[in-house]
Input
Amino acid sequence: MLPYLVQIQADLHANLTGYLKTFSESGDWSALASVLPMGIVFGAVHALTPGHSKMVLSAYLAGSRIGWLKSLGVTTALAFTHVMMAVVIVSASLPLVKFAFGRGAGEAPLLENVSRGLLVAVGLWMLWRAARGPHRHEHGGALVGMLAGLVPCPLTLFAMTFAVVRGVPEAGLVFALAMMVGVALTLSAIALATVFLRERATAILGGVGWVTAGRAIEALAGATLVLVAMSELIGP
Output
């Protein structure tokens, strides 16, 4: 499965380069608009590749009490931050993008470490909530999505950098917005599936069993966030 997704990723880069190059030469907005649905597909497929905080998202939603609509809010915040951070980086400073690319395509070391450090704090907070016992209100879901999305989208970095180099940053921005929709669609599907499975589990357990299981799931989710973020901070 992974080699197949990697090949798709390579094809996405090649096609995206072709579309942006054509627009830079023709300036035809109608032609660009006609391929925006493909941009959404690009984003959706790209979000299936490793990364994009899918594990973080699932772990948080599994251990939280938030419902269907709020879970979509978390994914929207994650997708928006993930894509727009790349747009901001390229718009603010091409040398900064080159610095990020020096370590590896689509990476921004400082932002990655900040994001992971904050996710460790979120995991510890979830562990504290689980130890504290039942609580009625759920806050901060969108904030968790924003923290998880701080690592910039590599495909958007590529698209924006290429568009700026070709002198058509506006085309890169339009493509970024289309890809953001695609990323949000994939992450939303994961979020809804996680909430569905959590709700089914709590419905089967019911009553006191639900409270006990909910605390256990939240503790497990918090521990998972801490372990994943710490392992990425420490590195191989």
Confidence is low (pLDDT under 50) at residues 100-108. Residues 2-234 form one domain. The radius of gyration is 19 Å. The chain has one domain: 2-234.
